[in-house]
Amino acid sequence: MGALASRGRPAPAAAPKPEPEEVLDLSQLPPELLVVVLSHVPPRWLLGSCRLVCRGWRTLVDGQALWLLILARDQSAAGRALLALARSHPPTARAALGRFCLRRPIGRNLIRNSCGQEGLRKWMVENGGDGWAVEENKTTVPGAPAQTCFVTSFRWCGKKQVLDLEEEGLWPELLDSGRIDICVSDWWGARHDCGCQYRLVVQLTDASQAVLDKFSATPDPIQQWNNDACFQVTHVFSNIKKGVRFVSFEHWGQDTQFWAGHFGARVTNSSVTVQVHLS
What we know:
Blueprint: H1 31-38, H2 43-48, H3 55-62, H4 65-71, H5 77-88, H6 96-103, E1 124-126, E2 133-136, E3 148-151, E4 157-164, H7 172-175, E5 180-189, E6 196-205, E7 211-217, E8 230-237, E9 246-255, E10 266-276
Antiparallel strand pairs: 1-4, 2-3, 3-10, 4-9, 5-8, 5-10, 6-7, 6-9
């Protein structure tokens, strides 16, 4: 008998192709709605990506309405005070509010590498004796980002940071509003077996580096056999004069026994913070 020809099964019907989804074009939104949408985007993306999309988006990101809407989301007392300041003392420079929202300078320590976590980076250093070193704290410093400190030698050792307040995100009209304080803090101490001397100098300067205000502290030396004494120095600059644009933070130390090595003042957790008046 001949072989029977097999009957092939009919091919299954092709599945219908899905309809292409309609892409939402945000640029077609009215500007007042687009501002609301963009206000939920992180500032770094607004400035780094959204601003480059087109001319219309760049105009919105460079304007003030978007950033005022972002600031308005902070319903704390300090947030409401800051929003009122931004409305009453708006910046003349374009994108100044964007830089402020990106850098978030209010309440943040503007000093870099405050405890020596990165060695001597970010500091302008003047070495005396055997210079500066970084060691573990002898006494715990509350609230410090690291329990390490800078240690001086048997001759005066100094280091300094100069903070550009505009670069940190504070616009000139805000700095000149009379509604901010600049708070300064520094911790210093000694080894139990060796005394030390310490001094702090903080200056507020204008754009040409002319000094508009100054605070200095030279506490009594810590004597030898001191149980690892540690102290905090603080100061608040209020009623800031118009024109302040920089903060110069500088401290010095040495030991009292003139021992080779690093037995002098131990400084750590240095800070400069900007606060807004609540009234």
